[in-house]
Amino acid sequence: MSKRTVKFKIYRYDPDKDAAPYMQDISVELDPSDKKLLDAMVRLKAKDDSLSFRRSCREGVCGSDAININGTNGLACLTDMEGLKQPVVLRPLPGLPVIRDLIVDMTQFFKQYHSIKPYLINNDPPPERERLQSPEEREELNGLYECILCACCSTACPSFWWNPDKFVGPSGLLNAYRFIADTRDQATNERLDNLEDPYRLFRCHTIMSCVDVCPKSLNPTRAIGKIKDLMVRRAV
Amino acid sequence: MSVNVSKRTFDAVIVGAGGAGLRAALQLSEAGLKTAVLSKVFPTRSHTVAAQGGVAASLGNSTEDHWHWHMYDTVKGSDWLGDQDAIEFMVRKANEVVIELEHYGMPFDRTDNGKIYQRPFGGHSMNYGKAPVMRSCAAADRTGHAMLHALYQRNVRANTQFFVEWMALDLLRDAGGNVLGVIALELETGEVSIFHTRATVFATGGAGRIFYSSTNAFTNTGDGLGMAARAGIPLEDLEFWQFHPTGVAGAGVLITEGVRGEGGMLRNADGERFMERYAPNLKDLASRDVVSRSMVTEINEGRGCGPDKDHVMLDITHLSPEVIMKRLPGIREISIRFAGVDPIKAPIPVVPTAHYQMGGIPTNYKGQVVAPKGDNPNTPVPGFYAAGECACASVHGANRLGTNSLLDLLVFGKSAGESVVEDFKTGNLALHPLPADAADQALARLARLESQREGNAVADVRLAMQRTMQKHAGVFRFNDLLKEGVTRILEVAESAKATYIKDKSKVWNTARQEALELDNQIEVAKAAMISAEARKESRGAHVRDDAPNTDEHPNGRDDQNWLKHTLWFSADNHLEYKPVNLKPMSDDVEPIALAKRTY
Predict the structure, then answer these.
(1) Which of A40, A187, B289, B430 is surrounded by the most beta carbons within 10 Å?
(2) Which fold has domain B440-574?
(3) Residue B2 scores a pLDDT above 90
């Protein structure tokens, strides 16, 4: 494979100098080894050092480089350049305030994560050794604990766009269920109380955008359904 | 950028919120100390998140185990350069810190009887090298992710105060050498602030990105090492870098040694399981330095795979798809995404890739930073602590065993935290006054970038550094290349003094951040090249052509002249040496006597 030139259209905004955001047309020559979108963005940055975005692990596990790519949320480091329609349109994640270029203010997202008490609650005195858990019980956590807090899901969710201050959002709810599902956790009732609210949980209308965009192939909608089931069962 | 420097006062500041920083933060928060934790990324984005295979502890859940064996393996793995007091401390604390983590909610895999699942790992053995042992406590192949999130979650519970997306710029010291805190930059606003404290804990991670091909995150730029070096603290044993045997060829992304722990094998172009020739006993589970050198030897002798014969294959096609899906799901995902192969059906192309820095800021096993003063090479620096990959306790010596890094950050994160709390309670930590010029060095660095109107692009200087490190200080080292490497890296360091950024914005200026990070990387690269050139023996991960295997010097190791730690000083690039501690911490175990390393 030889070098190739790829066209981009990128959302730019620097509050220090720009009166308003604009879309920048820019193209860059890629090496055959530049396989992922993040590789291309690093090349773009070498060309224009003012292009700002977050990135760290470049292997889809730290959750830094979530952006909106040709209209769909995803991680730049896991997105193949091959097959991307040109010009590749890059925007910050929708629904959160933009700080600069592709960097959004994630305060609201993390506030919702923190609101579900994202830690194990077990008030028994800790035993000498590990708390026992069968392999089957542990399997209940699969598909939940792998969340990387990238916010692709919550910022793809119309309910979160309307009520980011009141609706916990798919990521927060997936994490809430991660602790409810953990046999070592003793706070299921308290956790359900915390979510029993017209907004916090019940704004989920199973649109399932979260499932479509999750770069880790997790299913927040299913986790939310399980929380709703527990609410119903608790009520009867 | 005109700069107003604000000031904040805390009992303690922790720089870095990966595993070590978060573990230290728990000790401080739970003890009620007013603590600021600074991190240039949101805590769960720290590079601990990328650790895969497990954390070592002699729990003995699946096979018989003993901390004596773990200690032996670690000393031998270190090629006897590890300090035996620190190693004893670490392996004896292992069960405690791993069980604590389970209590915090870490989702470890489980055995049939409900205990923490453990898998075999490279260099870990039963009965002093006799057979592989199951010592690596794992959460599938996402152990670091599970651990980092559990530690962050526990800190949320403990109400730890984070300063997220703040980058520390420089360490503050007074004329007496006391450490007074750090000066830091908030990325979002460009605000510069002094964190004036009684105690400063560095947990800033490694600097593997000084190499061209690295498993490390972009953010692993050795910031703590750079700050320490500029403040006159020496850096220890930086000639020792671990090349992980299995990075995805081309992409560099890590494939855990846990793959071989679960039964994976390395094969050359002939399909031969070549590790049987190099390590008849532990084979594919020999120590990482040994496996990496064997792979490079296979490639150099023409038995590499692919059109360019430049990699070997990691084969797990003989494992059942169920085992792969259950124990190695993340690896399958990485392999499909970055190598384009499904490991259930075809082997993964792999090549040794820069991974871990064994050296770092010198500390004792209490996590106190130490430096030479008078006759004592290990005098604590008042108010300064370090833990995790940025520190050198030294438990890894010349080569780290897999799963000992997650253990290191738990044990020494906790122990540094405990030392701060203890030193605080006993009144050993004063809030020394800030000198008038405390902020000057950092402000001068910022002002230079602000005023520089032309010069060298940061990306170009960084690439020159990475290529130099890769070529001159790789898996095998050569006397002439090392000598030339020192000249080259000093040239690159000169060019880094004239980096130029076009972007002068106050708001989230990543160009400025990368230029400041490069300053830190350059300190580490100089330390690594100069220390490597000077060490005229082969030991652990440092193997050079002019120190071959002989009867007098097995594996090229020269204990008579080189059984000592290197200390590099930034001010004039000079080196000093200090003895290795061959004496364990207690009388509960005999010292592990010097011997030739074979697996």
Answers:
(1) B289
(2) Methane Monooxygenase Hydroxylase; Chain G, domain 1 (1.20.58)
(3) no
Q: Quick one: which of B79, B106, B145 has its CA closest to B557? A: B79
| Model pTM score | 0.97
Tell me if ipTM is over 0.90. Answer: yes
Cis before B394 (ω within 30): yes
Residue B1 has pLDDT above 60, yes or no: no
- A1, pLDDT greater than 90: no
Residue of B nearest to A178 (CA): B107
The pLDDT of residue B332 is above 70: yes
Q: Taking a contact as any Cβ pair under 8 Å apart, which residues of chain A between 23 and 82 contact chain B? A: 33, 35, 45-46, 48-50, 52-64, 78
Contacts 24+ apart (CB under 8 A), B433-441: B433/B174, B434/B7, B434/B172, B434/B174, B434/B180, B434/B194, B434/B196, B435/B174, B435/B175, B438/B172, B438/B180, B438/B183, B438/B194, B439/B5, B439/B172, B439/B183, B439/B192, B439/B194, B441/B170, B441/B230
Q: Is B323 an interface residue toward A (CB < 8 Å)?
A: no
Chain A residues in contact with B218 (beta carbon < 8 A): 55-58
Whether the per-residue pLDDT at B360 is higher than 80: the answer is: yes
Contact call for B45 and A100, based on CB within 8 A: no
Q: Write down the CATH superfamily of domain B5-241+357-425.
A: FAD/NAD(P)-binding domain (3.50.50.60)
The tens digit of pLDDT for each residue in B405-423 reads 999 999 999 999 999 999 9
A37 contact residues in B (CB cutoff 8 A) = none
Domains B5-241+357-425 and B249-353 share a fold: no
Domain boundaries, chain B: 5-241+357-425, 249-353, 440-574
Encoding tokens for residue B33? 């100390």
- The amino acid sitting at B9 is T
> Which residue among A50, A54, A61 places its CB closest to the CB of B50?
A61
- Concerning whether B135 is annotated as a catalytic residue, the answer is no
Q: Is B531 helix (H, G, I), strand (E, B) or coil?
A: helix
> Is the Cβ of A206 closer than 8 Å to some Cβ of chain B?
no
- pLDDT per residue as tens digits for the range B138-189: 999 999 999 999 999 999 999 999 999 999 999 999 999 999 999 999 999 9
Q: What is the pLDDT of residues B248-288, one digit of tens each?
A: 999 999 999 999 999 999 999 999 999 999 999 999 999 99
How close is the nearest chain B Cα to the Cα of A236, in Å? 30
DSSP B431-500: -PPPPTTTTHHHHHHHHHHHH--S-EEHHHHHHHHHHHHHHHSSSSB-HHHHHHHHHHHHHHHHHHTTEE
Q: What is the pLDDT of residues B193-243, one digit of tens each?
A: 999 999 999 999 999 999 999 999 999 999 999 999 999 999 999 999 999
Helix spans in B47-186 (H)? 67-77, 84-104, 143-157
Per-residue CA distances from A221 to A153, A158, A209, B351, B476 (Å): 10, 14, 9, 40, 51
Q: What share of chain A is helix, strand, coil (3-state, %, to 5)?
A: 35, 15, 50
Residue B102 has its nearest CB partner, among A49, A55, A130, at A130
A17 contacts B110? CB cut-off 8 A: no
B263/A contact by beta carbon, under 8 A? no
The yes/no answer on whether domain B249-353 falls in CATH 3.40.1190.10 is no
A52 to B508: CB separation less than 8 angstroms, yes or no: yes
